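In response to a reviewer's request, we include the raw inputs and outputs for one of the modeled complexes. The three entities were modeled together in a single run.
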Amino acid sequence: MFTQFRQISKKRSILFPVILLSLAILIQACAGNTATPTLPAEGTAHQGVLKVALQPIVQTDPAFISSDPEVIIANSIYDYLVDVTPQNTIAPRLAREWTVSEDGRTYVFTLVENATFHDGTLFKADDVVWTFNRLRDPDVDSPTKDLYSNIEDITATNKFEVTFTLKEPNPFFLYDLSDNHALVLKANSTEPGADFIGTGPFKHVSYSPEDRLVVEANEDYFLPNQPRLEGVEFIFFNDQTAQTEALRSGQVDLVMLLSADLFTTLNDEPGLIPLQAATNSFDVVRLRSDQSPGDDPRLMQAMRLATDRQAIYDLVIQGYGAIGRDTPIGPMYSQYYSEDTPLPERDIEAARQLLADAGYPDGIDFELHTPDTGNRPNLAVVLKDQWSEAGINVEVIVEPESVYYGDDGWLAVDLGITGWGSRPYPQFYLNTMLTCDANWNESHFCDDEFDRLATLAGTTMNENERVEAYNQIQEMLIERGPILVPYFFAQLGAISDKFADFQMKPFPGRSDLSTVHLADQ
Amino acid sequence: MTTAPKSPSIALDVAPSWWRRLSLLLRELYSKPISALGTTITLLFLLAAIFGPLIAPYGENEIIPSEARQPPSSEHWFGTDNLGRDVFSRVILGAREILVLSGLGTLFAVICGTLFGLLTGYRGGWFDEITMRTFDSLLALPALLLALLLLGTVGNSQYSVLIVIIIVYTPIVARVVRSVVLTVKPKGFVEAARLGGETQMYILIHEILPSVWPALSVESALRFSYAIFLVGSLGFLGVGVQPPSPNWGLMVKEARPFASLIPWALFFPAAAISLVVIGVNLLADGMKRILGTTRTSQSRS
Amino acid sequence: MTVIDSGDGTILDIKNLTVAYQQAGEWLEAVREVSLRIQGGETYGLVGESGSGKTSLVLAVMRYLEETGSIRSGEIHLGDLDLLALDDNQLRQVWGKQITLVPQNPQSALNPSLQVGDQLIETLRHNLNLSQEEAERQAVEWLKTVRLPDPGRVAAQYPHQISGGMQQRVMIAMALCTDPQLLILDEPTTDLDVTTQAVILDLIRDLTQEQNTGILYVTHNLGVVAQVCDRVAVMYASELVEDAATQELFSKPLHPYTQGLIDSIPRMGDTKDNIQLRAITGQIPPIGEAPSGCVFRTRCPVAVDICLTRPPLYPAGESRYSRCHRWSDIDQGEISAHQPTPAAIPEPIKPDSGQHPDLKVKELTVHFPLLRSISDWASNRPSSEVRAVNGISFELSPGHTLGLVGESGSGKTTIARTIMGLEEKLSGSIELLEIPLPDKLSRRDLDTLRLLQMVFQNPEEALNPHHTIAETLRRPLIRLSGLSDSEAESRMVELLQAVRLPASYAGRLPGQLSGGEIQRVAIARALASNPELIILDEPVSSLDVSVQATILNLVGELQADLGTSLMFISHDLAIVGYLADQIGVIYLGSLMEITGPDDLFQSPHHPYTEALLSAIPLADPSRKGEPIHLGGEIPNPVDLPSGCPFHTRCPRYLGEICATQAPPWQVAEETGKQIFCHIPLAELSASQENMIAERSKLSN
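The model returned the following structure tokens for the whole complex.
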């Protein structure tokens, strides 16, 4: 291809720039990493190397990881105390079993006794204590320090027993313990994350930033028959299309976090298994409610009336996921999700009327800010078209993600689209985006009744009370909330059919690679 | 030495008017199939740019959910895109934006470049030295890279793209103009004007500029085609343009993930860029041929 | 493939050749039914002005016509070889071996990136299949043959390192070394200085006498033809109008065009005060626009009705032809083919010599600094400079004409440009009407600018190609003379009339005018501000001879009418001698001699003037004078010779004194001529008298 390239440029053809553009697409598709480091083949139980396409990672210290690629890599090298299943339930990992006191303040975990770190040291209760103390240490400043601020004390009550004492009862504490960051490190690690010493199913072999990270099977893993693979190569791609093409060409075996567009193109591809995981990930269109014009809830109502959710569901996420109901509590939380409050049908006239009532009989102009990632630009474009019929004229402003989220600009803009990842329980969204003092209250929403309900739902140990509070919250948000949640999308991915038993989780980074094996074994 | 016989179409008894020159130019352009093709393509796109809203059957962001991702048909000549927008309408409507943006950018670049080229070429000295070295260093950077750097600093909007085109192409135009000025400056008629007590401004505009026109118009056409390409490329990279703009480059970018699913949504805007760039290039080549021969037919041995 | 002589010794036989160019679907004939025959050892001159078709004829013989050109009919034989039947491969065998060419511009013919010796060796090896050693040996031999000094050193040099004259000698060596059947010389000396030209012509004459090569010598210069050719064919408007032995053609031209051409050249000794040049009226028709019948009839002084039919090429004696119906009348002296003699230009009113001079130049020195190289800068060498003009003084009286003569590089144009303010002087003074002129053009006010105007050399660049003649002429009228628009309009028409151009030309663009017409407009523009002094810088050097004459006449007439002072710059002694009241001969930025026109040909002469005079090829084949050869090349003006600047090449070099001391200005008693030389005037007179007497006779 490159010889041909040069010939063209020699001729100084006027076609050159044109061809360059078209080739750029192809080259990107064909580019990638060709060097294949060999893995040491120890033992015969482990077979096959899974190649996973990921966006490049930045963080390797579990206390600070955030993106799916960072989490899946850490998750394969380290272990959680307790894990979350694809069905959103809590499962044991380094903790074999646990008991909760009646007042809901004391958790006692019994640990596995046969786990060793990759350097050979035995895993003990001290490691758990050290890890969680580090995570809640304000000096370390991990994003988890607030999450664990409710912990009063962590004690190694035995060589293989740890006791957590809470200040207040927390019904979601087990979920909190399985937070993405809560991977257990060796006690007193001097360079956490840099030495890649964990108890996990895979051991670190090599890491060349921006290129790849290679791990091999941990022969001494504490779970029987795990891992089954010989190793995993995480290969970094900056571009999703390139990842897709790499999957097509067999250069990689697993791609996750696919856009609906790319997923559709892979759907019928022979040799590939499409992966879908229902999640509570959503894009939220939020209007600042603390200033004009959003301080009048009729504006958001008008926007709701002007929105055609089915069309958005079909066009933007192409039917992979669920239609949203303008609350962050999606159908994934089957126990809390409610469809009792009816969502208004699309009604352009009513929307116009509301606008007129709010003082905008001739329509209203907005800038609609959105990061340039995912489906958000497409959502913005479709909303622009739908809302224009009701006189809501938006100018779409697409910004690079780093710009949109940088300097907290996303908290400042009036009308914006923000993506929210999936969490194991819904309380997180209420506490971080909608209560008066929420850290990321991007809509600047503040409602005493809402805060009361959110606090109740987040503290009661009574499940029925919680369900009732969540129901009321959903009703309140549909009536006067500052946000529009058009859909929840499924996580999409695809894996080569050479591999079996891969289950993608709602947060794809949490997917477990230790059970994956070659299909013919 | 060789007596090149005069072209009869140019040999008139009086100086031809501008309108007549234009019609002569068109006639010459249509005398060779290649330049006729280039002219036709360019004119077609200009028509699309002017009358786009009258031609396009749908709006630029008119979303028809039920007709998303449809292949070309009698209803949608170029098919529909991922969001159910008519690709034909968007390509037609995109002509205006891309041609106006690149046209304006080229125009300003040509004005600035001509200004700099005239002044540096005519005055020489340290002014020439400093300006041209600065321009040289600008030229050392690839246009697209320079564009991205500039967009990073001046912000991401259409005006920025305009500024980028001006900054990227001013040095190139200035060089072309300067080189013509350097050949014209020592000629007798310029010195005669100096001896006639003419001001520098008068000499630049009335004596030198007319000689710059042929090279300048060819260069402008060439720059125009590259500016189109630059705007398209920037759109493809998603900078300097906001959705749902029917910028052809942005359309290619948006359709790229669907290359195998709905290839028409990618092909037609990409073809539009190629076609208009090729068209304007062929036109520029034709102009070069014609304006070049006009000049030599005026010279005598 | 060799060519065998076709028995009668004919090398090149052209029969009824017609060459045409396609233009917008029409065939325009550039050569019409021309026949020529060149014998072995014969030098055949092909004379014509631009547009006559001589170049097309040469290209046709070379089979090298451009894409739009085509040989429509006729035959060309090189010996037995039918040139028109050859394919490209066979042509390549012929080119460079059997037919060779010496072009006008050797610079473009030599490969700039190869040493000249290697180029010659390559030619020898390629065409004669010589071994490298043999080719090297012969190459040096050939460089010696073309009289290059130190051939070994020249062989190792690149073309740009040697002068134009030397380049042309190398070209001649390359053209002759393959022992070609036919050598075509295409204006080989046109770009050279007159002294260099004399040397090259000598060389050509000598070399061709020794060989059996047929030579086609293409030129516009009748003097050159007379010096080197055995036979001459004259072309006009695509047709061959006269073909005769050189001697016969010059002594008795049998075509009115040939006669006019000969008459157009100012003879040495002619001055505007005693004779007007007999120019041919009208101008050469552009290709395809020649009149029907006799192509010359519209300009012919003796045209009659019969001339409306096309004359055949009449045999007019033994191997002599004329395409004129009235050739026998001319032959028998019944009619005169001369153009009517215009009245002598009336003596202009020249104010008393007691008056103050218009222009006074004193010790003018102009140097151009050269850019210092980095190594110069590093070694702290002083920046060098081109010493273009070195202490020149002269005065120009009102209504008079000063002629400056010099070869290229003499500084004559720099003097003019410095006076005009286009260059800055280093020292000395320039006074106009007793007022010192500021150096910089921008410091001169409009009144000063109005008084001084200039006519430039190159008609192609003299007028802005994008402005109509009216626009060009109106501007100085408004700007300098301060006329209103309507006044300027009527004055503009007057100016056009003054330079003998119809008022209808006002709307034309320069591209629609011929070179001569453009120079008239340029003169009109110079006159527009009614200046005190006009400097004409080689105004006719790029014009055809017949046009030259009309411009020279016009300049003379206008000066007589208006009394404007003129400074006339030329490389051509005859032209300057014709127009000027006072002549300055310049060499390397210094004046060598100041003389009146009547005394120009009177001894004593400065040795340089003497060499110049002797080098002029005279349009009289019976007088093939021996030119004085100047040794070496003109020194580089960066490194001026000490003492007398001419001493390095002076044939009368005295010794030490010339190289060390600047010569004195000596004044000849009878003539008032001033000579810048160490040799006593009496001594100069004594040795020069004979030669000059001989040559000045020719002017009558």
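As requested, we also summarize the result in words. DSSP finds 16 helices and 20 strands in chain A. The CA atoms of residues 149 and 288 of chain A lie 29 Å apart.
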